[in-house]
Amino acid sequence: VQLVESGGGSVQPGESLRLSCAASGFAFSSAAMGWFRQAPGKERELVAVVTGSGGATDYADSVKGRFTISRDNAKNTVYLQMNSLKPEDTALYLCARGRRLLYMPRRKSEYADWGQGTQVTVSS
Questions:
Q1: Residue 23 in contact with residue 78, Cβ under 8 Å?
Q2: Is 110 helix (H, G, I), strand (E, B) or coil?
Q3: Distances, alpha carbon 49 to alpha carbons 23, 64, 116, in Å
Q4: What distance in Å separates the CA atoms of residue 76 and residue 29, rounded to the nearest whole number?
Q5: What is the pLDDT of residues 40-81, one digit of tens each?
Q6: pLDDT tens-digit map of 69-115
Q7: Considering all CA atoms of the chain, what is the largest pairwise distance in Å, rounded to the nearest integer?
Q8: What is each CA distance from 27 to 76, 94, 97, in whole angstroms?
Q9: What CA–CA distance (Å, rounded) separates 36 from 46?
Q10: Are the CB atoms for 72 and 62 separated by under 8 Å?
Q11: Could you give the angle at the alpha carbon of 119 between the alpha carbons of 118 and 124, nearest 5°?
């Protein structure tokens, strides 16, 4: 299994970024996928999750209305569109593969594999 994130960077408050996670080594459309983030000194937290088909999603309250998770099963890629970014969104963003048969995993323990992450920094 390989998960490779890209698209991070440094932006100003109010700007947007689109993260991508290219997946390989497993049946992509069968797995729920999640985006997590971890800021220095803080716990890793779930940002967004999408089911295998892409038909259902869920978000952390802190990003609802600003972030959108989506997936392209033909390209084995999951995305995170981040709009209206705030300084508190600064973190390492990681994508993860949900454990087999879990519809919409929300806990870290419910994820089997992780990428290395891509850094997002929001600062004026």
A1: yes
A2: helix
A3: 15, 12, 18
A4: 8
A5: 999 999 999 999 999 999 999 999 999 999 999 999 999 999
A6: 999 999 999 999 999 999 999 999 999 999 999 999 999 999 999 99
A7: 43
A8: 9, 19, 10
A9: 4
A10: no
A11: 150
Type of residue numbered 46: L
3-state secondary structure of 23: strand
Tokens describing residue 46: 């779930």
CA distance 59 to 66: 10
Cα–Cα separations (whole angstroms), residue 115 to 37, 84, 87, 107, 118: 11, 25, 23, 16, 9
- Residue-wise pLDDT for 20-30, tens only, equals 999 999 999 99
67 CB neighbour count, 10 Å cutoff: 23
